[in-house]
Amino acid sequence: MVENGQLIGGTVEIDMSTIEGVDHRSNNNLIKHLKDPDFFDVKKFLFSTIAITRVELTNNENRKVTGNLTIKGTTQPVSFPAKVEVKDGIVKANGKLVIDRTLWNVRYKSGKFFDDLKDQAISDSIEFNIKIMAKNNFN
């Protein structure tokens, strides 16, 4: 939603089948594993959402976006910095969101839940690069 030329809220749907990594495009074993039930269970939970509840100005172009992120049916509050532009009814936003995956029940090889992993533990932090381009439908 846009009000007075500024993004104030809305819901963004994320197609989890589009997961890619910087060094791992969408068609390799790591990305395939991320889509499996061990991680995001994409066949069962094809879409995740971010419901934006607040957008605060931090400087001329940058905003602090706050909302509720739903992954695998679990919803948790999140905040992240983003560059937001609204022009001619088009909203563009770019930002980075870092989450603790275990808050969304993604526990595979997490040292928080499995004591015997040693050097097999996987970091609980996941970084998402967010790129949104959407038409404001509320003009």
From TrEMBL:
InterPro entries with a match to the protein in the record: Lipid/polyisoprenoid-bd_YceI, TTHA0802/YceI-like_sf
Residues annotated as domain Lipid/polyisoprenoid-binding YceI-like: 1-135
Gene3D superfamilies named in the record: Lipid/polyisoprenoid-binding, YceI-like (2.40.128.110)
PANTHER family registered for this protein in UniProt: PROTEIN YCEI
Annotated protein name in UniProt: YceI-like domain-containing protein
Species this protein is from: Spirosoma fluviale
